């Protein structure tokens, strides 16, 4: 890092409707309110967030550049030019932490190549919140993003997640909210009864709902105990049962390996 005052701030945003002070630390909010230049995945949601946190400057006077869902590497130098000149620029995703299950990693990597200061700020990350609340293995976990849409490919992907989990590695994944119910039903149809499934919906909001049960117990749920997931942001976590060991011996590896995958 260089000695300039400017930095690329990785600024978490809210995951849903909530009072900012209930979700974001005061230090994060203070820096957000001091910053006037923003690189946003979506400019409209960025403006709404800045209004929600009561940014002291008129929103129209702030510099907000939309970088989209797939930021163009040819524009990285342009977007980071203010940081090179000593001004801070904040990177915002639509929800949660930028560059974690969201765009921005390439821009952050380029900032490091330029020797610029990168400051990750504290805030909510929905995959990590789901993992924390799942009761599953937090020492070994993997975020796999979206599963296939084709029903045959989806069924195969669920089987592969169970094999990859091996009773030791928690598998985290997401879906577009309006397809959440379809994904949940596929998991109930194709995952093994003893496989554990956690669903965390509307994290950090007043309608937050987190359920973590074996598939067999999920199948026994009926409304209102079974959550309705349509149009609700949700994260899914899966942990299969440990593979059978020869002679009935338990696996030592699962008890001793503490290397977290992050």
Structural summary, described in words:
Helix content is 33%, strand content 18%. The protein is elongated, with a radius of gyration of 21 Å. The protein contains ten helices and ten strands. The model is unreliable at 246-262 (pLDDT under 50). The chain has two domains: 8-120, 3-Layer(aba) Sandwich (Cobalt-precorrin-4 Transmethylase, domain 1); 126-244, Methyltransferase, Cobalt-precorrin-4 Transmethylase, Domain 2.
Catalogue the unreliable spans: 246-262
Number of strands: 10
Q: Order of strands in the sheet with the most strands? A: 3-2-4-1-5
Q: Number of helical segments?
A: 10
- Globally, the shape reads elongated
Mean of all residue-level pLDDT scores: 91
Question: Which structural category fits the helices and strands?
Answer: alpha/beta
CATH level 1 name of the largest domain? Alpha Beta
How much of the sequence lies in strands comes to 15-25%
Sheet of most strands: 5 strands, parallel
- Give the count of structural domains: 2
Q: Quick one: CATH superfamily of the largest domain?
A: Tetrapyrrole methylase, C-terminal domain
CATH topology of the largest domain: Methyltransferase, Cobalt-precorrin-4 Transmethylase, Domain 2
As a percent range, the share of helical residues equals: 25-40%
| First-last Cα distance | 23 Å
Q: From N to C, what is the helix and strand string?
A: EHHEHEHEHEHEHEHEEHEH
Q: Rg from C-alpha positions?
A: 21 Å
């Amino acid at each position: 890092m260089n000695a300039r005052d400017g930095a690329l701030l990785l600024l978490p945003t809210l995951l849903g409707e909530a009072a900012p002070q209930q979700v974001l630390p005061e230090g994060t909010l203070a820096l957000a309110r001091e910053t006037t230049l923003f690189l946003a995945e979506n400019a409209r949601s960025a403006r709404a967030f800045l209004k929600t946190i009561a940014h002291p400057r008129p929103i129209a006077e702030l510099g907000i550049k939309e970088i989209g869902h797939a930021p163009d590497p040819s524009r990285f130098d342009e977007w980071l030019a203010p940081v090179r000149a000593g001004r801070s620029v904040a990177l915002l995703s639509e929800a949660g932490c930028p560059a974690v299950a969201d765009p921005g990693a390439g821009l952050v990597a380029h900032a490091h190549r330029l020797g610029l200061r990168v400051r990750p700020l504290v805030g909510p990350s929905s995959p990590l919140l789901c993992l924390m609340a799942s009761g599953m293995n937090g020492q070994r976990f993997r975020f796999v993003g979206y599963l296939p849409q084709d029903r045959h490919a989806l069924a195969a992907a669920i089987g592969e997640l169970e094999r990859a989990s091996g009773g030791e590695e928690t598998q985290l994944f997401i879906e577009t909210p309006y397809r959440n119910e379809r994904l949940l039903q596929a998991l109930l149809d194709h995952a093994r009864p003893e496989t554990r499934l956690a669903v965390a919906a509307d994290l950090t909001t007043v309608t937050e709902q987190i359920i973590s049960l074996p598939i067999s117990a999920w199948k026994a749920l009926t409304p209102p105990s079974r959550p309705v997931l349509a149009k609700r942001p949700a994260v899914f976590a899966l942990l299969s049962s440990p593979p059978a060991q020869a002679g009935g011996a338990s696996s030592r590896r699962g008890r001793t390996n503490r290397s977290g995958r992050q």
